[in-house]
Specification:
single chain; alpha/beta; Rossmann fold; 5 strands; about 50% helix; five-stranded parallel β-sheet; about 15% strand
């Protein structure tokens, strides 16, 4: 089984994914790190040098490869990954994949991301005051894809252990 964590950047996919994988004795993979290693460039460098469309196509190919070649894996997607190249449709229809949307409020996402602006190409050039509105618009655009996940967990005010317990109870 492959458990795919999706949601907006900063919602905790990598943190939850690492803990979940350890608990289940699965492998863990962060898609951004996988793409960076394969491309030998950071996500920011790929966005700057080759553009977002190139990056999204590479991401989609990587998801398909990993899901078709792996088992016992927890995969943390990038925030936009499910929204491009029919990736969400592929995940939902894959017989070995379970999808989990980690939903976090705009306020909590903003509070987290303000401190990570430099590492986040989509918000790197935004003023601090503009981040909540940007996130809100993005969440509205991405909701169609995120809401197709098999399980949605509203993570505001939940400890990681509570999130892990919900995933285990509802998916396994």
């Amino acid at each position: 089984m492959i458990i795919v964590l999706l949601g907006y950047m900063g919602c905790g996919k990598s943190t939850v994914g690492q803990r979940l994988a350890k608990k289940l004795d699965f492998n863990f993979l962060d898609l951004d790190e996988f793409v960076e290693q394969k491309q030998q460039a950071t996500i920011s460098e790929l966005f700057d040098s080759k553009g977002e469309i190139f990056f999204r196509n590479i991401e989609a190919q990587a998801v398909k490869q990993l899901c078709n070649e792996s088992d016992s894996l927890v995969l943390a997607l990038g925030g936009g990954t499910p929204c491009y190249a029919d990736t969400m449709q592929f995940l939902v229809n894959h017989p070995n994949v379970k999808t989990v949307y980690l939903h976090l409020s705009i306020k909590n996402l903003s509070d987290r991301l303000i401190h990570e602006k430099a590492k986040r190409p989509l918000i790197a050039n935004l003023n601090k005051e503009d981040i909540p509105e940007f996130i809100g618009k993005h969440l509205f655009e991405r909701a169609f894809f995120y809401n197709q996940a098999e399980l949605t967990i509203h993570t505001d005010n939940l400890a990681i252990e509570e999130i892990l317990a919900r995933i285990q109870t509802e998916l396994l």
